[in-house]
Fold:
Amino acid sequence: MIRTLWLLPLLALVAGCGAIKGTPTPRADDGLTDTYYWERFAHIDWVEVGRSVEDRPIYMTEFGSGDDVTLFFSCFHGNERSTPRFAFEFADLLHNDPSLLEEGKRVLIIPIQNPDGFVRGTRTNANGVDLNRNYPTSNWGHQPEGRRPVRFGNAPASEPETQMVLKLMSLHQPTKILSVHQPLHCNNPDGPNGLALAELMAEYNGYPVEPYIGFPTPGSYGTYGGRELEIPMVTLELPGGGPYSDAFDEMWEDNREALLAFVNADLEELHAQ
Structure:
């Protein structure tokens, strides 16, 4: 059973939350600016769903219709440079051939969840917060032993980018969630309800299924959405490689069918197998 109680205390916080304006910083040295992908993929219909700390827009696109809703997030960490292009390519695939999405399936794609970090080329957002440690989980703020200190934020869901994600979850009540990261090269099920989906993806992309990536992730989106809300969720960890490299071409080719299998999966049938 999917628990939604965690969302209820946050609705008042999320509704009407404003971004904190700041001064944009120099872009990362690979030449990909905050407008690069939006210009290249301008033929896709984008809607603004939030604003970052530095007041950059966060965009989403939507495909299909129905009650089976997949939320697809990419670029939680701005230094994981291939993840935005990966999401844009998937959006372009569905835009060019809507028939790839089965009846009753709806997909919401947010390609750059951390636009300030993307422009800076940093893991964190403009406040120096790791957005994948800012969620209102039972272990939020627990510094993992033996690892570099984590910047959790001033409070759970303190960041406007996190609040945007929570608002989308509340509005759309996702059936399943896919979050794309880099470079651990695995299908990481976030909780037992995501295991069948991770195994399904592995049939297509050949990546190992890793329920534990080797270190704790307190306050992570996977902990929040997959483990505590019990939504079927997978964190897809791409291998290393830049967005315009042979490595990217290989990871996209490996995952094209895996992504379609994920969004078109019937969870009842999958769990019955």
Notes: Residues 52 and 161 are 6 Å apart (CA to CA).
